Structures are given as C-alpha cells and as structure tokens.
Amino acid sequence: MPENSCKIAVFISGGGSNLQSIIDHIEQGHINADIACVISNKPNAYGLVRAQKANIPTHINDHKNHTTRESFELELIKTLDVYNIKLIVLAGFMRVLSTTFINKYHGNILNIHPSLLPKYTGLNTHSRVLEAGDTEHGCSVHFVTSDLDEGPLVIQAKVKVDKSDTPDVLAARVLEKEHIIYPLAVKWFCENRLAFKNSKAHLDDSPLDQAVLLTQDLETLLK
Ligand code: GAR
User: Fold this and answer.
1) pLDDT (tens digit, 9 = 90+) per residue, 92-122?
2) What is the pLDDT at residue 223?
3) What is the pTM of this model?
C-alpha cells in the first residue's frame, strides 16, 4: 500500500458492484486509497464476498439486531473508530443515516444515487423514469447531508432511455456509468482535489455550482 494513502470505509447492503469498481481502480493504481473496511447491514450481501476476495476486513452490522437507529449507528462508529477513516463511501447502502451520524463525519461521506439528481430521489428510480417517459436518465455522486439524496452534487453521467427498456435493462446501463463516476469522485477526494466547504462541493478550490458531467476525457483519467 502506498504511503499516505487515503483510508476509506465502504458501506454496502447488496451486490457491491460499485465497491468492486473502486477495488479494481485502487488495484490498477488509479486511486491512491486503502479500503480499510467494508461494513454491511445485510449479512448475505454479495459485496462482503467481493471484499473478502480482495482481503479487505468486513463487518456485518445487521440493523435487525438493533432496536434503535442510535444503537445501530453507535456500532458503526465503534467499527470506524478502529480504523483511521478519512472517507465513508456509501455504495448501495440502503439505510438512512441520522443527522447526528452525518454531522460527525461532515464533509467526509459520499453517496451514489441512480438518477440525475435532483430528479428521482428515493427508491425505484428506473421504473419511475420509464413511467414518466423520460428520454434521459443517469446517476449522481454527491456529498451526504441530512437531506436525503440532496447533498451537493459532485459528478453525474447521463444515459439514453430506449422505448424498449425494462427497469433491469436501464439499471444495467446506469450501473456501467456508476462504475466510472464513483471511482473518479473517490480519486478526486483522495487527491484532496474534492472537498465540501461552505455547504458546497469544491473541485480544485472552485465551488461546483452544478455537477461535473462525465465526458470521454474524464474517463481517460481511469485508464
Ligand atoms: C446502485 O445502483 C446504487 O446507485 C444504488 O444501489 C445500487 C447498488 O448497487 N443506490 C441507491 O439506490 C441508494 N439510494 P451495487 O451494490 O452493485 O453497488
């Protein structure tokens, strides 16, 4: 592991394909980071297997074993305290975090969401896009604040919606883009180029008034 690499905790609830894309880019030397631990609230999340294959310590914190959100989060904090975490990456983590938790790690939590925020916060984004007849869809990386899916945007990628798309087909097309924009955002954060200051995301010290849009040029940063 390179000296001074940025220590990350990745929170998951499911398949962990976003986790995998970050693991792969770290292994390929595109991101100077160390995934110190992966935490899942679901004992059977496949992402845990991906982490174990990459020799990353895993922790299961099943929300069903807690009677309150506070106790669930205290266990999260206890685990994070073991490592010297600089960044928390929510990668398909399907639990809402409290304001207390978010404030404790203020400016150091990123999330990926499968829509072009501010459109379609919440669940079932792909079906809702199809029902609305939108011709364009995509994904967004944003800093996490206590307003669910509404923190400052960092980067977005767009995809076209075909008339024949099912939610699953559309989800797969969006995921391909997620696997590019999330590693890029993590890379920028770990290079100290991306920060959350004065309620705004900043890239290279300039406030982002809107999300960076993924271009082919940006994609080459990961090649
Ligand atoms: C991804 O599509 C991610 O954007 C979404 O869950 C999926 C996780 O996939 N996240 C949310 O909906 C959060 N609100 P993965 O487990 O294969 O990375």
Assistant:
1) 999 999 999 999 999 999 999 999 999 999 9
2) 86
3) 0.97
What string of DSSP letters covers 153-190? EEEEEEEEPPTT--HHHHHHHHHHHHHHHHHHHHHHHH
- Ligand 1 pocket test: pick from 93, 175, 176 the residue with the most ligand atoms within 8 Å of its Cβ: 175
Distance (angstroms) between ligand 1 centre and the Cα of 3 equals: 31
Q: From the CB of 112, is ligand 1 less than 6 Å away?
A: yes
DSSP code, position 120: S
| DSSP 8-state assignment for residue 221 | G
Residue 19 CA, closest ligand 1 atom number: 18
Pocket perturbation via mutation, ligand 1, pick of 178, 181, 182 by most ligand atoms within 8 A of CB = 178
Round to whole Å and give the CA distance between 106 and 177: 26
Report the first-to-last Cα separation within the chain, whole angstroms.
20
Residues 121, 100: Cα–Cα separation, whole Å: 21
